[in-house]
Amino acid sequence: MLKRLFSNLANKNVAVVGLSYGDEGKAKIVDVLAANRDIVCRFSGGSNAGHSVVVNNKKTIFRLLPSGALHKDKLCILGHGMVIDPKVLKTEIELLTDGGLQVKNRVYIANNAHIVMPYHFLIDEAREKTISDIGTTKKGIGPAYEDKIRRTGIRMEDLLDQDILEKKIENSLKHWEPILRHFSLPVYSAKTMAQQYHEYGDYFASNVHDTVNYLNTTMKSIVFEGAQGAGLDIDNGTYPYVTSSSASVGGILTGTGVSHKKIHEVIGVIKAYSTRVGGGPFSTEINNDVADRIREIGAEYGSVTKRPRRVGWLDLPEIKKAIQINGVDNIALTKIDVLSTLPEIKVKTHDGADLMTIPGWESNITACTNFKDMPEKAKCFVKLIQECLETKVSMISIGCERDAIIHI
Ligand code: IMP
Fold first, then answer.
1. Which residue, 51, 192, 216, 270, could crosslink 27 as a Cys pair with Cβ 3.0–4.6 Å?
2. What's phi and psi for 378, nearest 5 deg?
3. How far, rounded to the nearest angstrom, does the alpha carbon of residue 45 sit from its chain's CA centroid?
């Protein structure tokens, strides 16, 4: 009886969302939680994401596939809130297959997910070089979502029929052609693009499904995997320095079509310090050698763009707002080991007040297997976070590897 109760609890559907500006270490948490679940489902964003999972010293960076894909029996769903670059997805699948992991037969792609077309990333890049200071990843994400909202987008199911695809590309180009010409960019013919993208349609035909119906009717357990973070959310983030999708829990409902009743627990992921790539406000940013030290130890360079990430201290009031918006039940705190050599650590605990300085633990914590083994000063840091956020820290990641995690 007790065993059944426990296994039911372990199999709750869980959402994993970033509470900062992305790069919080969500992928590792998703990978850990996926071990006890059946399905891992992305719901927003596209190949702007670079989700890293390290197993036995081998790092895999997921761009479009959900981060639970390394577990060989998990179903991987790409929800319709995503924008999908089929070229990137095909490469990702082939790389895993070449490495000995079969994944193609367990990928479901929403029939109504939108496609990132070649003109989307050309325009994203051209805008970044000229008129924009957002600092996008130049993966065509913004222009693909523009097409979706304008109702001129290309969807996954359109790739399956070359004639329909050509007509839809022609329609989309009515908007983009003058812009491509304005930036002196090549204008490929709708026919050529339809031929090329129909080939992707052939390749993915067996993966395209009505995922809304599937997700709402399945009895299997699900991890919903967020991309980016609350600060980059199109509505709740630091607009206009945001991505173009809903990176918060709300994005699960719109980006997969599941009922809110399907989300049983929300885990908010934060790093022990903050980072941000691209432009936009960053109230706790550090501009001295401490930032360089954290960046080097924490390997804070974009997984997709390789750009050095801006580094700052934790901004707890901002995270508290993200907790409210996302209805976070528990916190996963990552990369605490990166701070292990610092003599002191700063934290923003209140808006308008000076940052609080606390002593560092200055010792290696990577061998700790439970919370009580951790140095007292590290425990105080975790307790401070917990108290300020009024939310339990239930997982602490103390290294890159899958098993370098403390459950409390
Ligand atoms: P876009 O999503 O490529 O349009 O970029 C918009 C903003 O979101 C830029 O500041 C990017 O650096 C940021 N961004 C997008 N995806 C990620 C991510 O996965 N991690 C961190 N920042 C991201």
1. 51
2. -70, -40
3. 7
In angstroms, the CA 102 to CA 93 distance is 8
Cα distance from N-terminal residue to C-terminal residue, the chain: 24
One-letter amino acid at 121 equals F
* C-alpha closest to that of 115 among 68, 164, 75, 74: 164
In this structure, the residue with its CA closest to atom 2 of ligand 1 is 243
For 373-408, what is each residue's pLDDT tens digit? 999 999 999 999 999 999 999 999 999 999 999 999
pLDDT digits (tens, 9 = 90+) for 1-14: 444 444 444 579 99
- In the set 31, 51, 85, 337, the catalytic residue is 51
Question: In 140-217, at which residue ranges do the beta strands (DSSP E only) sit?
Answer: 208-209
Please check whether residue 274 is in contact with residue 334, taking contact to mean a CB–CB distance below 8 angstroms.
no
Q: Which of 148, 277, 310 to mutate to test the pocket of ligand 1 (most atoms within 8 A of CB)?
A: 277
- pTM for this one? 0.96
Q: Are strands 310-312 and 274-276 parallel, antiparallel or unpaired?
A: antiparallel
Q: Give the CB-side neighbour count of residue 185, counting CA atoms within 13 A.
A: 22
List the beta strands (DSSP E) in 344-399.
344-348, 356-359, 392-397
**Structure tokens, 299:** 């390997």
CB atoms within 10 A of CB 340: 18
Q: Provide the phi-psi class of 227: left if phi over 0, else alpha when psi is between -120 and 50, else beta.
A: beta
